[in-house]
């Protein structure tokens, strides 16, 4: 009889050839710089120390191996604070910006401590790097490996989720605060949280001052390997590492995956007028895409600089970084901000099969992770439907967002677009062999209006950002239905209530992978601000009073998610064909006009019926599905709908009605009223109904 040994802990502690490596009698420090003429290690005793306790010079003859400077320092260990300092040519015309006085963050630092200090000698003193002990008791934790087609993603901000006093948690605004709210996430039914950037980014400006516009969203990376210190409850250097791991472990124990929003497209060092904090002072011409012979920075990110993601050295750093988060933090996936930049070569040109994109897709050590592209950038690249090759990459589907918004707003000619998005966007993904789940469907994201504001404001209201309203998108596909902002007018409040339910129901019941934004389920508002990147206050924070105030919307969303996860009919693994599935006599999808006849796609009406047939046992042995009948009326008038002949003779029950109020807006047990015997359904304006059949077992 074979004896099985217990599985070892998932503790790879993958050692990259760079950064600090803790050894038995000291720490090995390694850093890349091809053009530096000298390298120094600055060691600090305390976070508040303005000057290093010791400066150690790397010996160019014995401490340099190729382009890697590496030195062992005995007698120190985890908790040690440090910077690098490099001498070299100051030659901006050829891309070199070495400054021998600059104190540099290690690109591979695993934690930072403190913040920028005020400097009277114009020497920028950035946060200190921390030597980290990676050991952690994961207690057998593993990646959850939930397929995308069984996922519901919840985009959230770690700080904003619990920072409000209304959260009533002990560790508000922190990784530990998220742990305290896990029961809420479980009750909602989501399967994954997509965290807005948790890589280190600046809290203060480079002179140690609180900026006029705080960096709330965090899309301004400073150290890719380090969890953000500002989200730790404990201020001890390196505590953020432990607290972040505790959060991941707790979420996994609750069955919730963790996806990181990563920003490998630019850094906080900015353009040629920005500070030298790390990459600029180590090898500027390699880490960034430069123009004009090297003097200026290409700006495909819209943030001042562009990371040179397809240079071999930078590719290796990103590759090591992804493995670091997967194996040291058990991260389940990544959403790549402005991912099209990873498709640009060292001259900024978009190239087919870019090495970085292919490397991420094919790396065997990342095979269990989800990889999601924001398939555009700030310089005009738009690759939705064509990012990467093969089936590995999923994408934020910006076309889904726009088409769903425009249909429910009542824009003419959007019926066909809505049907295409509802069916999984085969026009974008089928040609490359990808499945419907490759489409990450969303109606709102952190960037733009909340779902509530989408039906309350025609125009953005961003004056609080201090940019005189110049920031933020002017094309929101939104409406206010008669009054800009809050109103007591009952008719307007009623149509707004329907519209938020219409869009939430469309999102959750579409083929593909739904992503909703934290707070949309309780109608969180940003008061019309569609670019709250600098609002670290009640404008952005989750107001937990809304959980009770808008309990109807919360219950509606919970019921939708429960239905989706239970019904393979609305989350098929292959695209709908309009043909019968094996074992069924009716098409997997069919479309009808309100009079029950086959839909004329040339019509300009905004009303239709979609019939989704459940996969049969023959097609999916594990399937216990129901046929689904969806009725859409996005016109401004009530309409009569004649149910189509397909499905006649089956028992049907109402599942949801967006024009009704709780509890008649959603029947969680699928036991709502049956259609009238005449099979004629009265549909109010701007409303949606869904009927479900008896279980299909054949």
List the helices and strands and how they pair.
Layout (H helix, E strand, L loop, with lengths): L18 E5 L2 E7 L5 E7 L9 E4 L6 E2 L2 E7 L6 E7 L2 E2 L4 E2 L14 E2 L14 E3 L22 E4 L1 H5 L12 H6 L1 H7 L3 E4 L3 E2 L22 E5 L11 H15 L3 E6 L17 H8 L2 E2 L4 E2 L14 H18 L3 E4 L18 H8 L7 E4 L20 E3 L1 H12 L5 H8 L3 H4 L9 E3 L9 H4 L35 H20 L3 E5 L28 H4 L1 H16 L22 E4 L14 E6 L12 E9 L5 E4 L9 E6 L22 E4 L3 E10 L2
Parallel strand pairs: 12-13, 12-23, 13-16, 16-19, 19-20, 20-21, 21-22, 22-23
Antiparallel strand pairs: 1-2, 2-6, 3-4, 3-7, 5-6, 7-11, 8-9, 10-11, 14-15, 17-18, 24-25, 25-26, 26-30, 27-29, 28-30
How many whole angstroms does the radius of gyration measure? Answer: 27 Å
**Number of DSSP-assigned strands:** 30
CATH arch. level architecture of the largest domain: Alpha-Beta Barrel
Mean pLDDT across the residues is: 94
Largest sheet: 8 strands, parallel, barrel
Q: What share of residues is helical?
A: 10-25%
Structural class category: alpha/beta
Q: What count of helical segments does DSSP give?
A: 14
The CATH superfamily of the largest domain is known as: Glycosidases
CATH classification, class level of the largest domain: Alpha Beta
CATH topology of the largest domain: TIM Barrel
Straight-line N-to-C gap? 43 Å
Roughly what fraction of the amino acids lie in strands? 15-25%
């Amino acid at each position: 009889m074979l004896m099985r040994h217990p599985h070892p802990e998932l503790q790879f502690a993958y050692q990259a050839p760079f950064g600090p490596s803790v050894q038995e009698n000291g720490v090995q420090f390694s850093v890349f710089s091809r053009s530096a003429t000298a390298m120094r290690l600055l060691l600090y005793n305390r976070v508040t120390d303005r000057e290093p306790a010791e400066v150690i010079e790397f010996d160019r003859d014995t401490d340099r191996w190729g382009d890697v400077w590496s030195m062992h320092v005995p007698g120190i260990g985890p908790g040690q604070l440090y910077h690098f300092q490099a001498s070299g040519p100051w030659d901006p015309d050829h891309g070199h910006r070495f400054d021998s006085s600059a104190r540099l963050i290690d690109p591979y630092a695993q934690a930072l401590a403190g913040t920028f200090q005020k400097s009277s000698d114009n020497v920028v003193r950035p946060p200190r790097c921390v030597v980290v002990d990676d050991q952690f008791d994961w207690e057998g934790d593993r990646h959850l490996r939930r397929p995308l087609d069984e996922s519901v993603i919840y985009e959230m901000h770690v700080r904003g989720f619990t920072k409000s006093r209304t959260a009533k948690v002990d560790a508000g605004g922190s990784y530990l605060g998220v742990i305290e709210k896990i029961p809420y996430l479980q009750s909602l039914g989501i399967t994954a949280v997509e965290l807005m950037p948790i890589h280190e980014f600046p809290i203060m400006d480079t002179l140690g001052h609180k900026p006029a516009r705080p960096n709330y969203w965090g899309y301004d990376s400073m150290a890719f390997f380090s969890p953000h210190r500002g989200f730790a409850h404990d201020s001890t250097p390196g505590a953020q590492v432990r607290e972040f791991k505790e959060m991941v472990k707790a979420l996994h124990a609750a069955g919730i995956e963790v996806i990181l929003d990563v920003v490998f497209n630019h850094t906080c060092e900015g353009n040629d007028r920005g500070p030298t904090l790390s990459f600029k002072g180590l090898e500027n011409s390699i880490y960034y895409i430069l123009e004009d012979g090297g003097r200026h920075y290409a700006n495909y990110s819209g943030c001042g600089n562009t990371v040179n993601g397809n240079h071999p050295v930078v590719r290796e750093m990103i590759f090591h970084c992804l493995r670091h988060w997967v194996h040291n933090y058990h991260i389940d996936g990544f959403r790549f901000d402005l991912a099209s930049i990873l498709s640009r070569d060292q001259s900024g040109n978009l190239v087919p099969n870019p090495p970085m994109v292919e490397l991420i897709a094919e790396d065997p050590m990342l095979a269990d992770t989800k990889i999601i592209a924001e398939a555009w950038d700030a310089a005009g690249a738009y690759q939705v439907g064509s990012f990467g090759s093969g089936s590995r990459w999923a994408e934020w589907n910006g076309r889904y967002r726009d088409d769903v918004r425009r249909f429910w707003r009542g824009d003419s000619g959007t019926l066909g677009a809505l049907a295409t998005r509802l069916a999984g966007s085969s026009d974008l993904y089928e040609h490359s062999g990808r499945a419907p789940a490759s489409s990450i469907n969303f109606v709102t994201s952190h960037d733009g209006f909340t779902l509530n504001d989408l039906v309350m404001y025609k125009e953005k209201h961003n004056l609080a950002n201090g940019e005189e309203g110049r920031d933020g998108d002017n094309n929101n596909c939104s409406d206010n239905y008669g009054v800009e902002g809050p109103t007591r007018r009952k008719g307007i409040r009623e149509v707004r209530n329907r519209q938020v339910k219409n869009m939430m129901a469309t999102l959750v019941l579409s083929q593909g992978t739904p992503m909703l934004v934290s707070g949309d389920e309780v109608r969180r508002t940003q008061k019309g601000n569609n670019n709250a990147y600098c609002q670290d206050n009640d404008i952005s924070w989750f107001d937990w009073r809304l959980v009770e105030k808008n309990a109807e919307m919360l219950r509606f969303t919970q019921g939708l998610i429960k239905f989706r996860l239970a019904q393979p009919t609305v989350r098929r693994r292959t695209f709908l064909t309009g043909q019968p599935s094996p074992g069924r006599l009716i098409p997997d999808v069919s479309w009808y006009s309100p009079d029950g006849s086959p839909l004329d796609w040339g019509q300009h009406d905004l009303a239709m019926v979609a019939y989704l047939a459940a996969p049969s046992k023959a097609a999916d042995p594990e399937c216990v599905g129901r046929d689904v009948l969806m009725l859409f009326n996005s016109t401004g008038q009530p309409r009569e709908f004649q149910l189509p002949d397909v499905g006649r003779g089956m028992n049907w029950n109402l599942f949801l009605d967006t024009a009704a109020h709780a509890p008649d807006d959603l029947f969680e047990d699928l036991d709502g009223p049956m259609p009238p015997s005449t099979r004629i359904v009265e549909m109010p304006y701007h409303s949606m109904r869904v009927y479900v059949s008896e279980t299909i077992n054949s």
